[in-house]
Amino acid sequence: MDKLLRVRFAPSPTGYLHVGGLRTALYNYLFARKNNGKFILRIEDTDRNRYVEGAVENLINSLKWAGLDYDEGPDIGGVYGPYMQSQRLNIYKQYAKELINIGNAYYCFCSQERLQKLREEQEKQKLPQVKYDKHCLNLTTEEIEKKIKDKLPFVIRLNVKPNQKIIFNDIIRGQVEFDSNNIDDQILIKSDDYPTYHLANVVDDHLMKISHVIRGEEWLSSTPKHVILYDAFGWERPKFAHLPLLLNPDKSKLSKRQGDVAVEDYRDKGYLKEALINFVALLGWNAGDDREFYYLNELIEAFSLERVNKSGAVFDIVKLNSLNAEHLRRKSNGELLQMLKTELIKSEFADLSFSDERLLLIIEAMKERVSFVHEFISNCKYFYKEPEEYELKSIEKNWKPETPDHLRKFINLIAQINNPSKQDYENALTKVAEELNLGKGKLIHPLRLAVSGQSTGPGMFDLLYILGKEEVIKRIEKAIESINVK
RNA sequence: GGCGCGUUCGUCUAGUGGCUUAGGACGCCGCCCUCUCAAGGCGGAGAUCACGGGUUCGAAUCCCGUACGCGCUACCA
């Protein structure tokens, strides 16, 4: 009899979805889908100082863009809602009071100043750890009632019992052990009545029947606090899985300073969601074989928490790029066409119109030469407008005094053909080459330069065919004129 | 400082005591293909498995220690 497996992604709305968050969400999602469980989105907005307008919408959009659909969440509801912690304040208060009644929490009226001083003193004494001195634990009921009546600000603290071993099992790290003497009497309810992460998280995970807590490694050190809470309430502890961190190239925790960190940044730069998902999935997990190319549904099939690594992984943009190129190459031309069209609207060629037929030819010609959809434009502008300048190096190397004559011969031949095919272009060029007793390459290079302004690109005859006879002739003539002038 | 977690090619990783002269991928280099650039194919360089001790006939794999890195140490999450 399996209990229903339920996991959650619980970000705090700080503005955008971090790629590390994306991976956490992904692993939760994969684990749920693989095991017929439920995947829940819960917003942990308990810090009023960090509230950012529109952050929740943004988070949801990024998740949706990535294709990680959830079964319950703030925008779609669910039986365990609400899914915004700021809407559950009374629940936390109620549970905090219960904790006080059973002796596992207490009111604390200490001022920020006293706490500050306490900390400084402990540091000066070089005490091994800095923590609250349980000063307010000694307050009598009468004293507490009076202070509350006098409207003194207070917090509610967890009462950590000394000399206890707190042991829990982590799916990824195995058994982890803490000494309760090293654990501070964590604040559970702040003086503004909002709960801290620790209380809200545990209460909600229990109430929402979360079976597995899959989250970043930064939470490992606070897990004993959570375990104390579960035990104090008499609740069954969920299974824990702490994921390795995503790192900057210098191995520090992935941060904004050293590159893009928001999912939307990658989306805006033209990364395919398939590639980002694929890449991020492999940062800390693999199936145990050599496979590296996956679509989301294949990831679901292959995923298991047991195969998640323990150590942090550097986010290597170069590998992401290559994965992006590969995902791009495997897309159908039809899909690519739609993407190219929306890209075109954003480009300098927005005012021009191109037939699907022509765009499809460009896609076919460039597909194996690009890593991003926008490169169907930026890497080959010559498909959209005639070249304005010609690569200098190629001129020096390929443009000889006799080149104009050679190219004119070519023009003369193709001018006579109606709607020349690729083969027609090739035949014409072969003929000119034979007449001149030259290798084809000797003609192709200057031809490419004349027609595209560049020295690299798709196959010569594909290029000519896509441009069309009139355009080809026009461009050759222009090239002859402008290059000779120099 | 304390506590916790980690440590295999530059990077992501395979490897769970003998199959390993440590495999793959990205990147890099070379060759092939070829009108160029890609893509593709083939090959190469690149890891004394952080270090030092054990255990064992045998260790990247198990144990201990050290070093280093990272995380946490808030009325932030």
Ends apart, CA distance between termini: 83 Å
| CATH architecture annotation name of the largest domain | 3-Layer(aba) Sandwich
Mean pLDDT: 94
What would the CATH topology of the largest domain be? Rossmann fold
Total beta strand runs: 11
CATH class of the largest domain: Alpha Beta
Which residues sit in consecutive blocks of at least 5 with pLDDT less than 50? none
Query: How many strands, which pairing sense, and closed or not: the largest β-sheet?
Result: 3 strands, antiparallel
Write the layout of secondary structure elements.
Elements: E1 6-9, H1 19-34, E2 38-41, H2 55-66, H3 89-101, E3 105-108, H4 112-124, H5 141-149, E4 155-158, E5 165-170, E6 174-179, E7 187-189, H6 197-207, E8 212-216, H7 223-233, E9 239-243, E10 246-247, H8 263-268, H9 273-281, H10 296-302, E11 313-314, H11 317-329, H12 333-345, H13 356-366, H14 375-378, H15 392-398, H16 403-415, H17 422-436, H18 440-452, H19 460-467, H20 469-485
Parallel strand pairs: 1-2, 8-9, 10-11
Antiparallel strand pairs: 3-4, 4-7, 5-6
Helix pairs in contact: 1-10, 6-7, 9-11, 12-13, 16-17, 16-20, 17-18, 17-19, 18-20
The chain binds one RNA strand of 77 nucleotides through helix 4, strand 6, strand 11, helix 11 and helix 18.
